[in-house]
Design goal:
- The complex is a heterodimer of chains A (162) and B (195).
- Chain A has a 5-stranded antiparallel beta sheet, with helices on both faces.
- Chain A is an alpha+beta fold.
- Chain A has a single domain, classed as Dynein light chain 2a, cytoplasmic (Beta-Lactamase), CATH 3.30.450.30.
- The longest helix of chain A has 25 residues.
- Chain A has 4 helices and 6 strands, in the order E-H-E-E-H-E-E-E-H-H.
- In chain A, helix 1 packs antiparallel against helix 3.
- Chain A starts with a strand and ends with a helix.
- Chain B is an alpha/beta fold and 195 residues long.
- Chain B has a single domain, classed as P-loop containing nucleotide triphosphate hydrolases (Rossmann fold, 3-Layer(aba) Sandwich).
- Helices cover 31% and strands 28% of the residues of chain B.
- In chain B, strand 3 and strand 4 form a beta hairpin.
- Classes of the chains: A alpha+beta (162), B alpha/beta (195).
- At the A-B interface, strand 1, helix 1, helix 2 and helix 4 of A face strand 1, helix 1, strand 4, strand 5 and helix 2 of B.
- Bound molecules: guanosine-5'-triphosphate and magnesium ion.
- Guanosine-5'-triphosphate (GTP) binds next to helix 1 of chain B.
Chain lengths: 162, 195
């Protein structure tokens, strides 16, 4: 089985502090941290009108596709992607080659400022994730006990049906 | 690789529907999306060609609610089955926790099914997975068509691990939820085993 990617309170708090600071300092609209398989780790900013689950999945797909393009060209993956829109733009960068940082911003800020603040945040996030990944395998699943499966199974029977 | 977040108590699992072109992967997700209750499902995202062939992936998030304090979610993905989309298929496998291998039961598609299963094993390896370590369910689809191979023969050709298998008519929804429930349970069982 693939090793589960586990996040604990302490690391998660550091991540959230960093993301919150990035949001304010860059004057961005939304900041998302997404696992490369497309799962949302954390989001900050006004996500009330955003389908962040879909957004996370598509960002990861987008990043994966461009990384594959880079490989075809025989180079390392692009470390930054930037999509400029009429109103909103998207800046995507990679942390420790395992996680991607997505910043959505509009004309209240500039690409230059976003880039600068992202760079700083990437250093912090990089440290946290290095720490998280070094613990992988060493930590136990602390929260899930035997009855988890049986409760989950009855919920699956309840909800996954026509 | 499922994501278990102990801080905000979330578990996310990724299930990938794999199989040759036109075998019915997207049809499975469409049916699940149509039938499952509003609060349980998110939006279905399909990155498809003009002719409704999957170009990159379909994505459907399902929310099981809170189990022992953990918000538990399944993210369903399909890959593009057409042979020439292999590069995209590899990318979708990243982080997979469980597989549904959808089989087109028609006589003339047997080689395509076998090739797709081999392709799955190769692609898993390039993503750093061992096929033998991943939970999988097999779905023998299109059982309504006249020219289908008997299931016991398909089992011999495709189900070497003895995984749970289901017959289906995805267009009518037959077997779709049996398959989904089986793989969801296997994935969660696998998750609580890793301790
Ligand atoms: N008769 C019959 N047709 C089916 C069944 N399941 C799917 N189909 C049809 O087969 C065609 C292909 O189905 P899709 O779900 O798009 O196939 P896919 O596996 O997603 O194909 P790709 O995206 O190219 O990989 C569609 O026209 C479906 O309506 C089935 O059980 N019986
Ligand atoms: Mg499809």
């Amino acid at each position: 089985m693939a090793q589960a990617f586990q996040l604990f309170e302490e690391d998660y708090q550091i991540i959230n502090t960093t993301l919150a600071r990035l949001l304010t300092e860059s004057n961005a609209r939304i900041v998302l941290l997404v696992d490369r398989s497309g799962q949302l780790i954390s989001s900050h900013g006004d996500t009330s009108n955003l389908d962040s689950t879909a957004f996370a999945s598509l960002s990861a797909g987008n990043f994966a596709a461009t990384s594959a393009l880079a490989k075809i060209l025989g180079q390392d993956e692009f470390s930054v992607l930037f999509h400029q829109g009429e109103k909103e733009s998207i800046h995507i960068s990679v942390v420790q080659s395992r996680v991607i940082l997505v910043v959505v911003f509009d004309n209240r800020t500039s690409l230059g400022l976003v880039r600068l603040r992202v760079k700083k945040s990437l250093e912090e996030l990089s440290n946290v994730f290095e720490n998280i990944f070094s613990k992988l395998g060493a930590v136990q699943n602390v929260g899930l006990d035997e009855s988890f499966s049986s409760v989950a199974e009855s919920e699956i029977d309840n909800l996954f049906r026509d | 690789m499922s994501l278990i977040n102990y801080a905000n108590k979330e578990i996310n699992c990724k299930i990938v529907y794999y199989g040759c072109g036109l075998c019915g992967k997207t049809t499975n997700l469409l049916y699940v999306h149509k039938k499952i209750e509003g609060g349980t499902k998110g939006k279905l995202i399909s990155l498809a060609t003009e002719t409704d062939r999957t170009l990159f992936f379909d994505f459907l998030p399902l929310d099981l609610g809170t189990i022992q304090g953990f918000t538990t979610r399944f993210h369903l993905y399909t890959v593009p089955g057409q042979v020439h989309y292999d590069a995209s298929r590899k990318l979708i496998l990243k982080g997979v926790d469980g597989l549904v291998f959808v089989v087109d039961s028609q006589v003339e598609r047997i080689d395509d099914n076998i090739e797709s299963l081999e392709n799955l094993k190769v692609n898993l390896r390039t993503q750093g997975y061992e096929f033998d370590e991943l939970p999988m369910v097999i779905q023998y689809n299109k059982r309504d068509l006249p020219n289908v191979i008997p299931v016991d023969e398909l089992e011999k050709k495709l189900n070497h691990r003895g995984d749970p298998s289901f017959e289906s008519i995805a267009t009518d929804g037959i077997g779709v939820f049996d398959t989904l429930r089986a793989i969801s349970k296997l994935v969660l069982a696998d998750l609580s085993k890793q301790r």
